[in-house]
Amino acid sequence: MSAGHGSADPASTGHGSTDDGRTGERATRPWTEAELALLARTELIRVAGARDDGTLRSFALVGHVRLGRDELVRSLNGPDGGWYRGAIRSGHGEIDVDGRRIAVAFVRDVGRAAAVDQALRDRYGHDAGVRRMTRAPARDATLRAVPLRTDG
């Protein structure tokens, strides 16, 4: 990984979770091989942040890419995008991958903008939508979706 991951706040680094596998107060887990395979073959996913009362905001359809074992999403409208603001506010929510809902933490990803740009181009090509996703303000709104433990 590139530089830029040295912040003490795990929610604002490229790593995103503390050493004990927790993001904020919610325990995380690795992606399963089945989830990674499903994500790889699903072109677009739906994302929704959780409200303060635990209910989900409206889902938004987004593109996604993988860097290593990290799954990343960007807000086309940048930090002002509605789904992005909701995801950042609560720090968690769900993704829907071809009908399978997965509880996730949303973690700001920093220091890998060029790698995410290239992954987006590799996956989706070079059309106008991808060009928008690879410059500001979208480039400033990259989140990593990290699966949450649901076993208690």
Keywords:
two-stranded antiparallel ribbon, 6-stranded antiparallel β-barrel, alpha+beta, 152 residues, single chain, 4 helices, disordered N terminus
Structure description:
This protein is of the alpha+beta class and 152 residues long. It is 24% helix and 29% strand. It has four helices and eight strands. The strands form two sheets. The chain has a six-stranded antiparallel beta barrel with strand order 3-4-5-8-7-6. The longest helix is centred in the last third of the chain and has 12 residues, at 113-124.
H/E element string? EEHEEEHEEHHE
The quaternary state of the protein chains shown equals single chain
- Give the helix level as a range of percent: 10-25%
> Count of DSSP E strands?
8
Q: Name the average pLDDT.
A: 86
Low-confidence stretches: 1-23
Summarize the structure in short.
24% of the residues lie in helices and 29% in strands.
Any chance you could write out the topology, listing elements then pairs?
Layout (H helix, E strand, L loop, with lengths): L21 E2 L2 E2 L5 H9 L2 E6 L10 E8 L2 E5 L7 H9 L1 E6 L2 E9 L4 H12 L3 H6 L8 E6 L5
